[in-house]
Amino acid sequence: MPFAQIYMLEGRTEEQKKAVIEKVTQALVEAVGAPVANVRVWIHDVPKENWGIAGVSAKELGR
């Protein structure tokens, strides 16, 4: 059972997350031949203040 974990900064729409789930699922089906029903995708919405880039939070950087 392929299991993909995706970490992204918070702020994506429900439609964008749906697209990520669909495309990652399809990529795993094609790459490893897993049945689509066996693929799991977990999106982690990370608060911008909890994501560091070059020693500064993404929130401070205006991301």
Structure description:
- By secondary structure, the protein is an alpha+beta fold.
- The protein is 30% helix and 29% strand.
- The chain is built from one helix and four strands.
- It has one helix at residues 14-32; strands spanning 3-9, 40-46, 52-53, 56-57.
- A two-stranded parallel sheet has the order 1-2. It has a two-stranded antiparallel sheet with strand order 3-4.
- β3 (52-53) and β4 (56-57) form a beta hairpin.
- The longest helix is centred in the middle third of the chain and has 19 residues, at 14-32.
- 0% of the residues are buried.
- The model has no long low-confidence stretch (mean pLDDT 97).
- Belongs to the 4-oxalocrotonate tautomerase family.
- Its EC number is 5.3.2.-.
- Keywords: Isomerase.
- This is Tautomerase.
What percent of residues are in strands? 25-35%
Spell the H/E element sequence. Answer: EHEEE
The chain-level structural class is alpha+beta
Q: Whole-Å distance between the termini?
A: 34 Å
How many strands appear in the DSSP assignment? 4
The geometry reads as: elongated
**Overall pLDDT level:** 97
Biggest pleated sheet:
2 strands, parallel
Helix content: 25-40%
* Uncertain spans: none
Spatially, the strands of the biggest sheet line up as: 1-2
User: What is the number of helices?
Assistant: 1
Q: What is the CA-atom radius of gyration, in angstroms?
A: 14 Å
